[in-house]
């Protein structure tokens, strides 16, 4: 009797499929649904991530431009001096956020089932 | 020395179980000594012993060895009743349950490798579930699942091959049973 039998190959193959599916699934699980844009701590607007658009958010320094495109979002333009939120680039997963502190604008991606984050848990 | 008034007669099976459990605990230390990049991922070499015991003496003995390994191992590591202990215990119980179910598979086609991989997957599923419902109720926990599953596949296969190898050697050489003192 050999070390690996026919059934063993089957089990290994099945396990490989499971691993593959899990990798494919988790890429999907954190998928964000909505974009929450806040201005000065208050909700400015909440829009779907699946409709491409540009949102102009007026703040104390000027207008921050949020671009939503193809299921991802970013701050494209911001009057802030250090441009941290712009350099953060595209936000992809639920919970990702870009905060333009000087202009009091924040952009956060909301998932279907976001319940806790490391701060409030 | 005063002889103990309580005599616990140890049967032949008890000796087997304790010897195998000791071997498994030794292998857990090997596990602990190997650094791995992902937290929570372990090769689980002790399961080689459980697989061999399962094939040689049956599920009952394997359950004893596995649970003794978890209990005595945790005492030695100092992790008794810690979250890690319960995670390990939950994993072990799920593995044993899966091994019980897997015993329905025909021996002719499914060897130690099958059992090892199945048990490894049951182990991580059980651990993830316990971790999710008890420790970290955050869906983000499941983003670790693919890495755990990949590790389960890899180490499950390796452990299964090692166990299968030992079981083959036994058959070929027909090693006589070491007499128990």
Provide structural commentary.
The complex is a heterodimer of chains A (121) and B (181). In chain A, β6 and β7 form a beta hairpin. With 121 residues, chain A is an alpha+beta fold. Chain A contains 2 helices and 7 strands, in the order αβββββαββ. In chain A, the strands form 2 sheets. Chain A has a 4-stranded antiparallel sheet. Chain A has a 3-stranded antiparallel sheet with strand order 3-4-5. The mean pLDDT of chain A is 85. Chain A starts with 5 loop residues before the first helix and ends in a 10-residue tail after the last strand. With 181 residues, chain B is an all-alpha fold. Helices cover 70% and strands 0% of the residues of chain B. Chain B is built from 6 helices and no strands. Chain B has helices at residues 12-33, 46-57, 59-77, 83-102, 112-135, 145-173. In chain B, α2 (46-57) crosses α6 (145-173), α4 (83-102) runs antiparallel to α5 and α5 packs antiparallel against α6 (145-173). Chain B is globular.
Distance between the termini of chain B: 21 Å
Order of helices and strands of chain A: HEEEEEHEE
As a percent range, the share of helical residues of chain A equals 10-25%
Tally of helical segments of chain A: 2
Strand percentage of chain B, roughly? Answer: under 5%
Please report the distance between the alpha carbons of the first and last residues of chain A: 54 Å
Helix content estimate of chain B = 55-70%
Strand content range of chain A: 35-45%
Overall 3D geometry of chain B?
globular
Oligomer kind = heterodimer
Instruction: Count the DSSP helices of chain B.
Output: 6
Major sheet size, sense and barrel closure of chain B: none
Number of strands of chain B: 0
The order of strands across the largest sheet of chain A is 2-1-7-6
Low-pLDDT stretches of chain B: none
Features:
heterodimer, A: 121 residues, alpha+beta, four-stranded antiparallel β-sheet, 2 helices, 37% strand, elongated, B: 181 residues, mainly alpha, 70% helix
């Amino acid at each position: 009797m050999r070390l690996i039998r026919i059934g063993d190959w089957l089990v290994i193959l099945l396990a490989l499929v499971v691993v593959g599916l899990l990798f494919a699934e988790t890429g999907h699980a954190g998928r964000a649904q909505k974009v929450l844009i806040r201005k000065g701590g208050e909700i400015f607007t909440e829009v779907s991530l699946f409709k491409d658009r540009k949102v102009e958010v007026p703040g104390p320094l000027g207008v921050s431009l949020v671009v939503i495109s193809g299921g991802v979002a970013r701050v494209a333009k911001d009057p802030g001096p250090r441009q941290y939120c712009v350099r953060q680039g595209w936000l992809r997963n639920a919970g990702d956020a870009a905060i333009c502190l000087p202009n009091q604008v924040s952009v956060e991606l909301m998932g279907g089932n976001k319940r806790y984050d490391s701060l409030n848990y | 020395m005063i002889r103990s008034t309580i005599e616990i007669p140890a049967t032949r099976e008890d000796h087997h179980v304790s010897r195998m459990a000791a071997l498994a605990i030794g292998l857990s230390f090997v596990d602990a000594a190997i650094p791995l990049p992902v937290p929570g991922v372990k090769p689980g070499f002790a399961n080689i012993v459980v697989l061999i015991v399962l094939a040689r003496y049956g599920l009952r003995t394997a359950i004893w060895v596995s649970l003794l390994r978890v209990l005595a191992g945790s005492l030695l590591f100092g992790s008794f009743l810690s979250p890690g202990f319960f995670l390990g215990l939950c994993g072990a119980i799920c593995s044993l349950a899966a091994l019980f179910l897997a015993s329905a598979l025909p021996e002719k086609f499914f060897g130690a490798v099958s059992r090892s991989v199945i048990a490894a997957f049951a182990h991580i599923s059980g651990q993830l579930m316990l971790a999710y419902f008890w420790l970290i109720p955050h869906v983000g926990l499941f983003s670790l699942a693919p890495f755990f599953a990949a590790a389960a596949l890899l180490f499950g296969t390796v452990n299964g091959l090692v166990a299968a190898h030992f079981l083959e050697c036994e058959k070929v050489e027909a090693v006589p049973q070491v007499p128990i003192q």
